[in-house]
Amino acid sequence: MPEIILEDPDGTFAMLRDSVAAFAQRFDGARALRARRGAGKDIDRDIWSAMAEAGWLGLMLPEDLGGAGLGLSEQAILSEALGRALITEPLAQLSVFSGALLAGAEPGEERSRLAEGLISGSLVVSPVWQTTDGGYAAVSATENETGVTLSGTAGLVVAAVSADVLLVLARSGDDRMLVSVAAGSEGITVMERPTVDGATLAELRFDGCHVAADQILARNLLGSGLLDEAIQAARLTLAAELAGAGSKALEATVDYTKERVQFGKPIASFQAIQHRLVDMWSAAEFSCAAIVNALERLADEPGKPAALAVLAAKARAGDAAIDITRKAIHLHGAMGFTDECDIGLYMKRAVNLNATLGNPAQLRLQFVALERAA
Amino acid sequence: MAKQQDWNSLSDAEFRQIFRTWVDDNCPMHLRNMRKQRPVFDEVAEWYHALAEKGWLSPVWPQEYGGMGLNAAKHIIYVEEWARLGCPRIPDHGIGLVGPLLIEFGTEAQKAHYLPRILSGEDVWCQGYSEPGAGSDLASLRTAAVRDGDSFIVNGQKIWTTLAHCANWILLLTRTSRDEKVKQKGITVLLVDLTSPGVTVRPIENLRQEADFCEVFFENVRIPAENLVGEVDKGWNLAKAVLGHERIFLGAPSRPEVALSRLEQLAEARGAFADPAFVDRYARLRLDLYDLGSAFERFARQLRDNGTLGADVSVLKIFCSELYQKITEETLDIAGEEARFLDDLPAGNGHVDAMNLYLDSRALAIFGGSNEIQRTILAKAVLGLPS
C-alpha cells in the first residue's frame, strides 16, 4: 500500500515504523478511541505517557531543550504510522505545534520547564491561539507593572481539560505575544464540545486572567514568522497522518472486498468495485508523493516554494483521505454503517484532521493567492 | 555522425544544459509549439535530419547502434527539455519501437539493415497493432500470416495506425496460429514494406479534422520470411517487452501544463480571476497539475534508482489525461458564447487555441490502453484483486 518513500540510509525511518507497530500491539488504536469517547475525555493520559516514553513527544525539539533534534521527515514518517494505526492522541497540536513555538521562544526558565515537561509527558501544553472559525484568538494582553492581564475568547483548543499549561497567543499592540498560563488559573472558563472522532475541543474565556511577566515566552509571533513556521510544521504532520489513515483504510477495504462473497464471487472481482479501489489507491499514491515533495522543498527551497508545497500536501492528503474513507464505508456495505466496524473511525478521524488548520478548498485558495502574488 | 561522449557520466544539470542549449539553437522556430500533436514526416523533416546529423535522434539506443545511450534519468531530461522548448513530435515509431525491438530480438542482418535507415529518415515506421475487432482486447487480433515457401502471405486489416500515410514500413502483429485457451499464443511479428503490392493505406480524419491515423488493408501481401522478428507464434512477449520505461511519458505533465497556461491567458484576458467561483475551480486544476508533478517525480525516482518501473506507473496516464480534459473543458466554459468557435480566441496580445486543445484532449484517455483498461490492470497488478 502507498507510503511516504524517503531514502533511509541509517534505518531511522524503518525503526520509527517498527516502534509504532510495537506500540499499536500494546495500545489498540480503535479500542483506545472508543474508551476515550466513552469516558468523555479529551486525551488518554496513559497513552500520552507511553508516547512520551517512546521518545515521540520531543522528536523535533532541539537537543539543548532535551529533545531528539530530528526533523520534519522523521515526524512525517512517525505521524503517517500513527495515522495507519489510528492512534489519535493530538500529537500535531500538543507536540509539533507547541514544540515549534517553544523552540522559537526566548530562552528562559519557563521555556525550559515547559519543554522538559512536554517531552517527558509530565506537562500537557495546549496551544490556545485560534477562534472557532479559524482566525487568531480574540484574546488581548494588557501589560502592567507585574505582568499581563488576558481578556477575550479562544476556540479549537485540544486537551483543554487535561492541560497543565496553556500557550496563549494574545494581541499586544499590532502583533501577538505568547504567554504561558497555568491551566485552572483564576479568570479562565472552559467549555468543551465533542468532536466526531471521540475527543473534545474547547472554547476558552479569559476574564482578566493575570499572568506574571516571566511567563511571557515570545513577542512578535506574526512579524518574526514563528507562528507561520509552527503552522507549517503542524500542517505537514497532519498531512502525513491523513496519508497513513487513508492508506490503511484502503488496505482494509481491499481485504474486505476480497473476502466478502456475493453472487458466488468475491465482490472485489467486480469491475465497478475494482475501479473504485484503484481510484482510492491513486489518491493515496498522490498524497504520499505530495508529502515527499513538501519535505524536499523544505530542505532545498525554503520560503515560497516550500510554503506552496506544504499547502498542496495538506490539501491533497485531506482530499484523498476523505475520499478514500467515504468510499471505504460504502464498499463495506451495511457493515460500514455500524459503529462496531473500525472503518467508520477512519472516516471520522479523516474528517477531523482534514478540517484542522485549513480544509483543502481553503488551502488551495491560499496556494493560488501566494503563487500569483508578485 | 561524430563519436558520442558518455552522456551518463555527466551530472543531470550538465547534461540538461548541453542538451537544452543545442536544441534551442537548432530546432527551427517555425516548428515550435505546433498545433498538431502528430505532424507528418515532411512537416518536420528538417528537425529530424538536424537531430540525426548531431546523433541525437535516438536517445536510448546504445551508442554502437547510433543512439545516445542515455539511461532513464537522462532520457527523462531529454523529454522534459524537448517539451519545455515546444519542439514538435517527430514520427518516432522507428526510434521508440522498432529500433529497441530489433536491438533486443532482431538478427544481425536485420539490425545492420534497418537501424541506419531509421536514423537517416529513409525508412519511416508505423505500428500495426490495433484492428477493428482488436482494440483494448489486442490479443484477439486476426490479421493472418500464412507460410508459403520463403514467404508469408498476409491478409487482414489494421486500424488507428498512427502516421501510416507518411510511413513506408510497418511493424505488424499477425496471427499465425490459434490456441483456443490462450489467445496471446500464435501471434507473430513481421516487418512489412508498405509499398508491397496488396497494401492499401487510407487516412482517417480525427475529431480535429486532421489525418493522423489510418486504416491499413492487406490483400495477399507477400512478405519475405527473413522479415520475421523472433520466432513464429511467439511475438506477443516481444511486443510486450519493448513497452519499457517509456510508459512514464504518457503521464508527463507537459500537456496539461500547456493547457493550463492557455486557460490562465484566457482567464486573465476575460477578467475571470475576479470571479471567486472561477478562482475556486482554477485552484483545483492548478493544484492537480502541481501534484501531478510530484507524482511524476515519485516514479521518475523509482526509475532512476531501479532502472525499471512497475505496472503502477499507469496511474500517471490516468490522472494526466483526465486532468488535461478538465482543463480544456474549463477553458471552453469561461469562453462563454465564444466556446463554439473553431478558430483561436483572441486573448490579450495573443490567441488561445481553446477548441484545438479541447478536441485534442479527448484522445489521451483512449489511446495507449483506455483509462478503463488501465484501471483494470492496476486492480490486478497492484491491488491483487481477483478476476
Summarize the structure.
The complex is a heterodimer of chains A (374) and B (387). Chain A is α+β, with helices and mostly antiparallel strands and 374 residues long. Chain A is 52% helix and 18% strand.
Shape of chain B: globular
Q: Which radius of gyration of chain A do the C-alpha atoms yield?
A: 21 Å
Largest sheet of chain A: 4 strands, mixed
Label the overall shape of chain A.
globular
CATH superfamily membership of the largest domain in chain B, which one?
Butyryl-CoA Dehydrogenase, subunit A, domain 3
Quaternary state of this entry equals heterodimer
Overview of the molecule:
The complex is a heterodimer of chains A (374) and B (387). Chain A has 3 domains: 109 residues, Butyryl-Coa Dehydrogenase, subunit A, domain 1 (Orthogonal Bundle), CATH 1.10.540; 94 residues, Butyryl-CoA Dehydrogenase, subunit A, domain 2 (Beta Barrel), CATH 2.40.110; 147 residues, Butyryl-CoA Dehydrogenase, subunit A, domain 3 (Up-down Bundle). Chain A contains 12 helices and 10 strands. In chain A, the strands form 3 sheets. A 4-stranded mixed beta sheet of chain A has the order 1-4-5-8. Chain A has a 4-stranded antiparallel beta sheet with strand order 2-3-7-6, with no helix packed on it. The mean pLDDT of chain A is 97. Chain A is of the alpha+beta class and 374 residues long. Helix content of chain A is 52%, strand content 18%. Chain B is α+β, with helices and mostly antiparallel strands. Chain B folds into 3 domains: 84 residues, no CATH class; 117 residues, Beta Barrel (Butyryl-CoA Dehydrogenase, subunit A, domain 2), CATH 2.40.110; 137 residues, Butyryl-CoA Dehydrogenase, subunit A, domain 3 (Up-down Bundle). Chain B contains 11 helices and 10 strands. In chain B, the strands form 3 sheets. Chain B has a 4-stranded mixed beta sheet with strand order 1-4-5-8. In chain B, a hairpin with a 2-residue loop joins strand 9 and strand 10. Classes of the chains: A alpha+beta (374), B alpha+beta (387). Chains A and B meet through helix 7, strand 10, helix 8, helix 9 and helix 12 of A and helix 8, helix 9 and helix 11 of B.
